Amino acid sequence: MQALFSILPPMTRIVSKFGGSSLADAIQFRKVRYILEGNPNRKIVVVSAPGKKDPKETKLTDLLYAIYDLAKNGLDFSEPWKFVKGRFIEITEGLSIKSTIREELEELEKSLQKQSDDLSVDFVVSRGEYLCAKIMSEYLSAKFIDAYPIIQFDSQHRVTQESLDNLAAALADPEPLYVIPGFYGSDMQGKLKTFTRGGSDITGAILANACDCLLYENWTDVSGLLMADPRIVQEAHSINYVSYREIRELAYSGANVLHDESIAPCRAKNISINIKNTNNPSDLGTIIGPTPASVSKTITGIAGRKEFSMVYIEKSMMNKEKGFGRKVLGILEDHDVSYELSPCGIDSMNIVVDSKSFHRVQPIVFAEIQQKMQPNKIKIFNNLALIATVGHGMVSQTGTAARLFSALAKENINVRIIDQGSSEINIIIGVSEVDFEKAIRAIYREFVD
Prior knowledge:
Shape: globular
Distance between the termini: 47 Å
């Protein structure tokens, strides 16, 4: 395999990250090899844990969470463990390679049986990516680099400059093919730490930044981004190019092809990201890069999420009460609730929060705001959905907002929240969850169809 790759300077190297669907079985592993052989610049490979072969299967990462919980409570974890172990062995046997995976699995099983105190949930869950990377490195005869402890994050979840320097040093030789597991690194105390779901995207972006790579390829099971969720808008158009700013807005708002936190490391060095399809590698996919000088379309995409709640607070002369907003947000912070957005009026304040984190503390927060802020009125609205309409083209197009709200009015959709920043590339609306799909289709028809 190594003979296929010529010596190249670091700035021409490409990071190729493969998601779980690209690694579900031996057939998918062979597709990965074919893709890597197709471009000698693809020198740095990041892998997720093997994905589901069948939609009815439980995700391997979820099974590892369950295995840890069962082992920690002294319960039998043999059934889910049988599936996890079988998947990795099945892949190695399907690839006909000599592998150390059996030994690695046996060692992990023994540690789980002992219920060792130093066996953290993050360590167990990270083994999905770790073992997959080990198999991939053996299959490709590549150099395995463990993400732990070399990728380190500080208390603010920011990758440290020291770890970027260490990565650059560890991958300095441009000749080898490297394989690195995604999804985890270490904290400042040296403990293994997993990222949020989809965190392998972050690993790939960090490596592209650290090694000054030419391009970051993100291989998945779709040929790039679509202008809307195809489950909602059938035959939604594809997006050929999207800027860093636009994709950040879309990813945060629900377009789940790419983790939103993977944008910043590439944007810092103007490294383009290419969303590609492992099953159709010749498809061009979507390029993510700097803001273009000119755009032809009014909008680039529409994305949204459900399960939000809104706290509505009304108080006379609120605008004259110094620190009012800070104190309200401080109450939420004290109960570990972050806010999504906060459109305000002179005497009113609206705070949109994630319902999952808010519901467990809703009565307490409600009572504290009443007691400390003495509002004239406070009300909580649940079952809200947020929809973001994003595009640089909106900046130069007069009447974009009017068109959007007219399209919603035609469908008798009541807009509960409106938020638009001064950049004008994103209009966020809040609607009832029952109107979510209908609202996205109405906006799409107005600007695309």
